[in-house]
Amino acid sequence: MSPEMHEKSPERAAEQHPTRRAFTVASVAAAGLATLGACAESERDEGQGGGETGGSTRDTFVFGGASDPDSLDPAFASDGETFRVSRQIFEGLVSTEPGTTELAPSLATDWTTSEDGLSYTFTLKEGVTFSNGEPFDAAAVVANFERWYNLRGIAQGEDLAYYYRSIFRGFKTNDDPQLSTSLYAGSTANPDGTVTVNLTAPFAGFLAALTLPAFAMQETGAVEAGGGNGADGGDPRQSAYATGGPVGTGPFVFDSWERGQQITLKRNDTYWGEKAKVATAVVRFISDGAARRQALQNGDIDGYDLVAPADVATLEGDGFQIQNRPAFNILYLGMNQALPPLNDLKVRQAIAHAIDKEAVVKNALPEGTEVATQFMPSNVIGFNEDVTTYEYDVDTAKRLLAEAGQANLTIPFNYPTGVSRPYMPNPETIYNAVSQQLSAAGITVTPVAEQWSPNYLDTVQGGATHGLHLLGWTGDYNDPDNFVGVFFGAQTNEWGFNDPGLFEALAAARTVTSEEEQETAYQDINEQIMTLLPGVPIASPVPSLAFAAGVDGYTASPVQDEVWNTVTVADA
After folding, report:
1. Of residues 452 and 195, more confidently modeled
2. Does residue 559 belong to any structural domain of this protein?
3. Exposure winner among 184, 201, 518, 548, fewest CB in 10 A?
4. What values do phi and psi take at 343, rounded to 5?
5. Is residue 118 a part of any domain in this protein?
6. Looking at the structure, do residues 293 and 394 belong to the same domain, yes or no?
7. Distance (Å) of CA 456 to CA 450, 464, 487, 539
8. Cα(213)–Cα(85) distance, rounded to whole angstroms?
9. What is the spatial distance between Cα 391 and Cα 397, in angstroms, rounded to a whole number?
């Protein structure tokens, strides 16, 4: 989910909170599978049910990941591959209801908020221990918050403490002048066993942010013993703790990490909740999407995500299960106003009118994708049904260009290669669709294709003279600040504009304490953004996962909050 800025990457019942729209999963992946590869052929448990086949189940679940995680310590991660593993080992105070973005209890069974929005008191689940036997209690919660707050040096860097910096904005002692006063104002382990976390200012998204793996509870004694805080000045992502000794309260425990090959997890037999149905979970690293598909077809893995749209029908025809992850993302065409004439509103409006979003969705994106009207999905609070839109109209686009003196506009158009993202499954296909539409309106684009890693994000976010660009964002949690606040909360090199009024409105909206206030504030902000028109929101694509027929109990989450303790794999 993101940052690299837009990569880091990334909740109660809808009937109880009618202004917060819940995501639900239409169906849960089920059904049988081809045989697993050699490493998955190990232990079998004949006593468990086997999905739809009704036979015995395998004791190993193998998932195809795209790469190694950055680290096994989620406090220093912002990438989906790290978080995929982290969610099996660690848990937070707050989680999400399976298949939705709605808040759900986890290590905290309940919580209350002070009237001024500055204090949160959590009632903790009793009898929980970390996997090394140490107790999880109020003191452990305080120790985690204090650990993050007291990080120093390299550990404060944006590439390490990305989410702490994004949410809390500062540390006890800031080593980076860009940081400010921390949102965190201390925490207290109360005599009744509850814990109170205090803030320096209200933040409406605080509870939702706690669902992030970056704020999962870790056994801080093990962290310290394994050099996990970077106290020696080294990179804490490379500490003994972060590479081989993570300790959490989750349903799996770390077993081994074969770099470039796979990570193996074992069932946590002392887990407080529903114990894992498989004894072993493996994440096998397969960087190429076509190779992941082939691995599934060959029986080497049991499932993978980011299925290419073109592969969906083939896999379904071969008897594999396709499960669509509820869309919680935005694909957009960015416009860098630091490069004239993109600083001319009429030019930006012309570009917006030149794009046929329906055609882009039909020709380049998965079935079920929603056309976007603003920079957040329709299910996020603050979505504005009446926001200003720019209908597809080539004649209007040409007229606006002529009025701006840009009837023969030529502009660079950056797009990435070597990547597939949930919001952008095939960048080149999307680029081709959009560039042809711009050409029809008399806009000549100069293609600038760059490898996603290491160059593309540095180009579009690093101040280079990029013009138009394709990018997007997968939400981390259900709060509007996690979309429009990420994009437009301050002046950035990506967008190249300075609008203090918008920045101030976003800063103020972040501190409101009720959903009603959020709804109004962010609806107004969405209208401001679409009037300013820094880019063109195109769509919210539906990412797909594929599973073998025998996989059951996997519930896809819009924020990838997917824990595997309920997964079973039936023998073929």
Report:
1. 195
2. yes
3. 201
4. -80, -5
5. yes
6. no
7. 5, 11, 17, 21
8. 10
9. 10
Retrieve residue 144's tokens. Answer: 């985690």
Nearest to 99 by CA among 486, 367, 379: 379
CB 348 within 8 A of CB 333: no
Q: Say if residue 147's pLDDT is above 90.
A: yes
Predicted confidence (pLDDT) per residue in 65-108, tens digit = 988 998 999 999 888 899 999 999 999 999 999 999 999 999 99
Give mean pLDDT, residues 472-498. 91
Q: 446 and 559 share a domain?
A: no
Residue 256: predicted pLDDT: 97
CATH number at residue 469: 3.10.105.10
- CA–CA separation, 282 vs 257, rounded Å? 10
pLDDT digits (tens, 9 = 90+) for 224-238: 999 999 888 889 999
Q: How many CB atoms lie within 10 A of CB 424?
A: 25
Interacting residues of 159 by C-beta distance below 8 A, sequence separation 6+: none
Residues ≥6 apart with Cβ < 8 Å to 400:
346, 347, 349, 350, 353
> pLDDT value at position 310?
86
pLDDT band at 40 (very low <50, low <70, confident <90, very high): very low
CA–CA dist 356, 144 (Å, integer): 49
Residue 343 lies in domain: 329-540
Strand, helix or coil for residue 174: coil
Which residue would you say has higher pLDDT here, 158 or 444? 444
Section 293-297 average pLDDT: 97
d(CA 505, CA 463): 25
Residue 446 domain flag = yes
The total domain count for the chain is 2
Co-location of 565 and 469 in the same domain: no
Token digits for 99?
């298949």
Distance in angstroms (rounded) separating the CA atoms of residues 473 and 471: 7
Q: Environment class of residue 112 by beta-carbon count within 10 Å: exposed (0-12), middle (13-18) or buried (19+)? A: exposed
DSSP conformational letter for 34? P
Short-list 420, 424, 416, 434, CA closest to 329: 424
Of 332, 310, 86, 330, nearest in space to 212 by CA: 86
Determine, yes or no, domain membership for 368. Answer: yes
What is the rounded end-to-end Cα distance, in angstroms, of the chain? Answer: 34
Buried b (16+ CB within 10 A) or exposed e, 305-340: bbbbbebbeebeeeebbbbbbbbbbbbbbbbbbbbe
363 and 478 within one domain: yes
Assess contact for 368 and 542: CB atoms under 8 A: yes
DSSP code for 382: T
